[in-house]
Each structure stands twice: as C-alpha cells, then as structure tokens.
DNA sequence: ACCCAGGAAATTC
DNA sequence: GAATTTCATGGG
C-alpha cells in the first residue's frame, strides 16, 4: 500500500466526481466512501480528495512512491494547468458560459492515454454513455490484464490487432468492432502513429486520425481533446449542437479561444445535467 | 413497435 | 457535392 499526495494551487480546484463522470472517461467507478477506483498507465489506484489535496492510493507494492509516479498522476489530472485562471477568462466571454463553469467548477480535462481515448470514442459513436461504459469495461475484462480487485488494464493495440470480429462479439459493440480492429492494426503497423499525431498541426492531426474506419470529425476531436490534450478542440455531438443552438446561437467554437475544449466540457456537462433547458 | 444514443459510411439524389 | 439511409445494440 502506497500513497501519493499532491496539493493543488491556491485558486485551483479538482472535483473527482465532476471530472471522472462527465463523459470524458468511461472507466472510473465511485466507491461507497466517495473515493474512485480506476486504472491508468496500467496502474490500479484509488483516488480521493482531502481539502485541496489529491490522494492516490495503490495496493500494489511495486507502485513506488517516487517523484516520477507523482508527476505521472499530476499529469493525468492536469494539475500543471491552473483552471482557476482559465475559468475566469472563459466566464468573461458569455454569461451562460459563466453559469456552466460554476455549475461544475471542479471539472478538469484528463490526460488520458491516446490509445484508450481512441478506442473509447470509436465505441462512443451513435451510442449512449451507459452502454459505452459497459462495452469499454467488457473490452478490458476480456482482453486486458488482471490487476486484481476485478480491475483490468486497457487492452494493447497489439493484442486487439490479432483478433477477429467474432472474437469481439462478447463486447456487444455491434458494427464498431470492425472499427476497433482497424484502429489496432493501423497502430501496430505504424500507419497510425499516435505519438506523432499528438504533436502535429491540428488540421493534419485530424486528417491522420480520420484514416481509421469509424473515425470522423467528431470522434477525431474527442481523441485529440481527451487523449492528446489538444485543448483547442471542441467536439460537436448531438448535445453540443443543441446547446450551441439554444444557449449560444450567435457563437462558434473558435469564439471560445485556445481553451475551447475546456469550455466545451463545462457546457456539455451543464447541458446533460439540465435537460429542461432544451424542452420547448 | 418506435425513438434515441458524445457518428460515420454507404447510397441516393 | 449535398442530403438521406443504413449500420448493431440496448434502454426508455
């Protein structure tokens, strides 16, 4: 049992429920005591907050408390970026933007692993969040490594690349299974290089991701925002189209600036939790 | 039975 | 090229 403690900056904040259950990640589960169990970087951990300090507990002996691992989890929860300042700037853009940010002020954009984001958002297309979670979890329990406590690592591209569509039928993912296999094969051959895409100019990065079957403009932007931390991306799904048409009729994604992706996440969560705004 | 879901591909006009 | 239909699956 090891423990990492990371204190946030004075005017900054992190709310685990808002961040881990706002539709950007599909693998974390809340425990009865308010902590969250999950897996990232192949590590099974329990995350919790104490005042303004993030606590990462691991049951594994080999998960050493060292500087490198501390930096890794600070990176995952994006603690190097000050969201207090960003929220202040976004709130000046539009009064409803301010409402959305204040509705869930502890949301942060995670630094998820690119391959996990790629698969998760391929699965997300024309689907609902509850079923997405089920499919992603079956993906891990069937093809990932057992980490104990009934939690599994995210399957590698290499492993998935060798499977057939019938192997993936246990997922219940429907036609999306074909897309997952294509993504895995292109990753293994090097035709798709996620590390390089992460650093590409945005138009080129989008184009590269869309070479994968089942990845269009929306899924590409989700992979870029959630898996590659390209904060200028503003994924437009059915909820965001509704929200923009109703709440920001005169605005476009670019109007939110270099941190548009963070604005998008506030607006997405705000809209999904307040559906009465869209009933006519 | 019908409609929707963090869309994209295939087909048709 | 733009608009429409189809795709597999589960839930309401």
Can you offer a commentary on this structure?
There is one protein chain. Helices cover 45% and strands 10% of the residues. It is globular and about 50 Å long. It starts with a strand and ends in a 7-residue tail after the last helix. The protein has helices spanning 16-20, 67-76, 83-91, 95-103, 114-123, 129-143, 157-161, 176-189, 194-199, 202-209, 217-228, 238-247, 260-273; strands spanning 2-7, 29-30, 36-40, 43-50, 53-58. The protein contains 13 helices and five strands. A hairpin with a 2-residue loop joins strand 3 and strand 4 (43-50).
User: pLDDT below 50 for ≥5 consecutive residues: which ranges?
Assistant: none
Oligomer: single chain
Shape: globular
N/C terminus separation: 53 Å
Order of helices and strands: EHEEEEHHHHHHHHHHHH
Blueprint of the fold:
Layout: E1 2-7, H1 16-20, E2 29-30, E3 36-40, E4 43-50, E5 53-58, H2 67-76, H3 83-91, H4 95-103, H5 114-123, H6 129-143, H7 157-161, H8 176-189, H9 194-199, H10 202-209, H11 217-228, H12 238-247, H13 260-273
Antiparallel strand pairs: 1-5, 2-3, 3-4, 4-5
Helix pairs in contact: 3-4, 4-13, 5-8, 5-11, 10-11
The chain binds a DNA duplex (13 and 12 nucleotides) through helix 6, helix 8, helix 11 and helix 12.
């Amino acid at each position: 049992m090891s423990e990492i403690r990371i204190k946030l900056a004075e005017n900054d904040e992190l709310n685990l429920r808002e961040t881990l259950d706002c539709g950007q990640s599909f693998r974390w589960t809340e425990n009865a005591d308010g902590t969250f169990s999950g897996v990232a970087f192949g590590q099974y951990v329990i995350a919790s907050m104490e005042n303004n300090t993030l606590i990462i507990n691991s049951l594994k002996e080999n998960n050493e408390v060292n500087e490198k691992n501390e930096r890794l989890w600070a990176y995952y929860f994006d603690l190097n970026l000050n969201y207090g300042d960003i929220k202040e700037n976004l709130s000046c853009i539009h009064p409803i933007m301010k409402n959305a940010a204040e509705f869930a002020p502890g949301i942060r954009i995670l630094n998820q692993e690119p391959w996990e984001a790629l698969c998760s958002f391929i699965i997300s297309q024309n689907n609902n969040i509850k079923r997405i979670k089920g499919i992603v979890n079956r993906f891990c329990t069937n093809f990932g490594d057992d980490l104990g406590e009934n939690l599994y690592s995210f399957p590698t591209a290499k492993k998935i690349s060798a499977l057939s569509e019938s192997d993936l039928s246990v997922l219940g993912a429907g036609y999306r299974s074909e897309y997952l296999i294509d993504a895995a094969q292109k990753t293994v051959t090097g035709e798709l290089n996620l590390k390089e895409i992460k650093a590409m100019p945005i138009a080129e990065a989008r184009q590269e991701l869309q070479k994968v079957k089942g990845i269009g403009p929306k899924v590409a932007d989700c992979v870029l925002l959630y898996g590659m931390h390209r904060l200028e991306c503003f994924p437009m799904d059915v909820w965001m189209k509704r929200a923009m048409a109703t709440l920001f009729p005169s605005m476009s994604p670019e109007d939110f600036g270099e941190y548009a992706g963070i604005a998008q996440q506030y607006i997405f969560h705000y809209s999904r939790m307040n559906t009465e705004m869209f009933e006519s």
